[in-house]
Amino acid sequence: MSQRTALVTGASTGIGKEIARGLLAEGFHVVVACRDEGRGRAALADLGGGDRAELELVDLASQAAIRDFARRILDRHAALHVLVNNAGIWPQTREVGPDGIELTWATNVMAYHLLTALLLDRLKASAPARVVNVASTFAGKLDLDDVQFERRKFRGAAVYAQSKQADRMLTWELAGRLAGTGVTANAVHPGLVRSELGRGLTGLKRSLLGATYRVIGKTTKQGADTAVWLASSPEVEGVNGEFWTSRRKVRCRFRDEAHQRRLAELCDAMVR
Ligand SMILES: NC(=O)c1ccc[n+]([C@@H]2O[C@H](COP(=O)([O-])OP(=O)(O)OC[C@H]3O[C@@H](n4cnc5c(N)ncnc54)[C@H](OP(=O)(O)O)[C@@H]3O)[C@@H](O)[C@H]2O)c1
């Protein structure tokens, strides 16, 4: 089989870097998408994929940067077989990104939505192809009338959980539209993973997370396993619209077609 190409966002560290490593081990050419050049170069050196790994820079909080990035990917890669939307943040204070959108929603939700939309035709033309969205079981509190926490008190956990609920629901919406195209979309919970995700936490919250990580936290390699499997294994060829953890299907309580459609329409309307 000729070379297959995969793109992993947020691959400078954490779960994303290990997903990139796993896909390199599966023989893919891997686009390692990072926002910071220094961290990206360090990740690339650590991954050691030779000419099968390439660094591309993108700030996923910026829709202009996402568009520019997608254009470069389409110019450079005639085929794209795997897209792993992984980059995510868990901020503790409310910040607004370059498009005037709250940063968690911009990074964890709008970037998944927009990047997938911009690359979808290339994925379809490269079918069989797969989209894997890194979501979480830590999810809920989605309020379509206040996704940017303008009316609700900004609590990091709730803001993050809302974004991860949206990631799952956008996956189901996408999977419905992809039926019959040869492209699949699945969502994955990586487990509780010792990564840099809690970097914004301070004080007691930081100590508690550190202690939890030490007791039950998975390594980033373990956290990447199901995503790599979903992106590459013949066992899940053609499987579409499911939620996975530890290579097992799990029920998702956020399945509601009308709600999913409203969310996708809201995201479309937030594309600048
Ligand atoms: N860790 C867990 O227990 C856990 C559990 C469930 C789900 N998840 C999900 O797993 C995914 C990966 O998280 P992680 O735990 O590996 O966290 P992490 O170690 O903090 O890694 C996050 C990655 O996203 C990148 N990123 C953040 N904002 C970006 C932006 N604006 N543009 C481009 N890249 C950006 C980071 O880049 P920099 O290096 O430049 O910061 C980094 O590469 C997230 O979607 C998260 O929600 C994690």
Properties at a glance:
binds NADP nicotinamide-adenine-dinucleotide phosphate; 45% helix; 272 residues; Rossmann fold; alpha/beta; globular
Characterise this structure:
The chain is of the alpha/beta class and 272 residues long. It has one domain: 3-Layer(aba) Sandwich (Rossmann fold). 45% of the residues lie in helices and 14% in strands. Strands 3-2-1-4-5-6-7-8 form an eight-stranded mixed beta sheet, sandwiched between helices. Helix 1 links the parallel strand 1 and strand 2. The N and C termini lie far apart (39 Å).
Q: Low-confidence runs (pLDDT<50, min 5 residues)?
A: none
- Shape category: globular
Reported by name, the CATH topology is Rossmann fold
C-alpha end-to-end distance: 39 Å
Q: What CATH architecture would you give?
A: 3-Layer(aba) Sandwich
Strand content is 5-15%
Strand neighbour order, sheet with most strands: 3-2-1-4-5-6-7-8
Structural class: alpha/beta
Q: What is the residue-averaged pLDDT?
A: 97
Order of helices and strands: EHEHEHEHEHEHHEEH
Topology:
Blueprint: E1 5-9, H1 14-25, E2 29-34, H2 37-47, E3 53-57, H3 63-76, E4 82-85, H4 103-125, E5 129-134, H5 156-178, E6 183-188, H6 203-216, H7 220-232, E7 243-245, E8 248-250, H8 257-269
Parallel strand pairs: 1-2, 1-4, 2-3, 4-5, 5-6, 6-7
Antiparallel strand pairs: 7-8
Helix pairs in contact: 1-7, 3-4, 4-5, 5-8
Bound molecules: NADP nicotinamide-adenine-dinucleotide phosphate (NAP).
Residues 10, 12-16, 35-36, 39, 58-61, 86-89, 107, 134, 136, 189-190, 192-193, 195-197 line the site of NADP nicotinamide-adenine-dinucleotide phosphate.
